[in-house]
Fold Peptidase A24A, prepilin type IV.
Amino acid sequence: MMLDLLRVLLFPALMAFAAASDLFTMTISNRVSLLLIVGFLALAGLGGMGLQEILSHIAAGGSVLAIAFACFAFGWVGGGDAKVASAAALWFGFDHLLEYLVYASLFGGALTLLLLQFRQWPLPYALCGQPWLLRLHAKETGIPYGIALATGALMIYPETEWIRAVDLAHFAIY
């Protein structure tokens, strides 16, 4: 039961926290990425994932990390975004990696267009007292891409082996 609860809640909760953190502060704490990594390793071990499969997931995460940090070096994404994308790739492995990256890219493009449009309009006076909204509205501010990364991850997660392994009888209401 506890293992199933962790499978259902841990990854989605951490990704939602990353998205909210990026929206409100334009940063994603390293703790989120570390918790994603530790959570993966713990659940992979407790869930009986084989060493070969664990190594494959690590390779997927490492591949995304290399590419994401190249993007970070060019100033295209933030460091928190690069780390969270890599940690999410660790959970997905190569089986769902392409789907995740496509969804994250599509949501990222939509988010970028929406924010660029939002930044063209004046902010209503009643909302000017919100520092996070002022930061989000500022034209020189980047895009909180953690929102797109989390949304893409949450679209894919229900299709993964993590959720297929859940015994839904544990959650039945009688």
The chain has seven helices and no strands. The chain has one domain: 1-171. The longest helix spans residues 79-118.
